[in-house]
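Example record for the data management plan.
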Amino acid sequence: MELKTNYNKIASAYDERYKSNYLTEVEKSLLSIASDKNIHSILEVGCGTGRWLRALSSHSKKLVGLDYSIGMLKVAATGQCDLVLINADACKLPFAKNSFDMIFCINAIHHFPNKELFFSEATATLTQNGIICIYGVDPQIDKDWYVYDYFNDVYEKDLERFPSLKETKQLCELFGLRIEEQMIVEKVYSERIGNEVFSDPFLKKHMNSQLANLSEEEYQEGIERIKHKISVEPETKFITDIKFYLTKARKES
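Corresponding structural encoding:
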């Protein structure tokens, strides 16, 4: 069964995550790619609250954000940037062919119910020589996140939701997109001992889709497992070791 995170419910608090981890290196990568003089129009699919589009606002580009959640788009619309925001499905992009020089997704593709259809739509929407950039994590490679250890089935569900780097590469190639880069752009590491773990913002239920998708009962069961572990071993280390990867591909003429 496809999990759908209720982003309308958590939209107002969503940007709290960037106060804790701004993903500076991801932003640097995005800005560097978007600065190409041949890129005039940019579409972000799964734009959420507009954090990444705002980062691009200093560029003299046409910026368009698309998201399925009206609640997230309402937050995005409160910013100071001149953005075009569209409520639509990532698998049914409402644009003419050859509309954008660059399409990007950051931490969003795992929410798209049909990744193959998204790539088909994105490829058609790209201009010739346009580029697509997919930023995200790969739980098949990076498993060392304590949340996976204490909350039932979260890891297994992530394996189902997140396309691996290999799968992303295959999807690009399926639609004739030539891979230019597939690389680590940012490493996130933290180590908390014992009760320090409860100071981790990403342990809050609304701070990531993994926990937001749990019922309140499932979430509390995980919290109790953590508390029990600390009661038995007060010096338990709770480690987060996650990498953000970029897959960049080009639509060849």
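Summary line stored alongside the record: The chain has eleven helices and seven strands.
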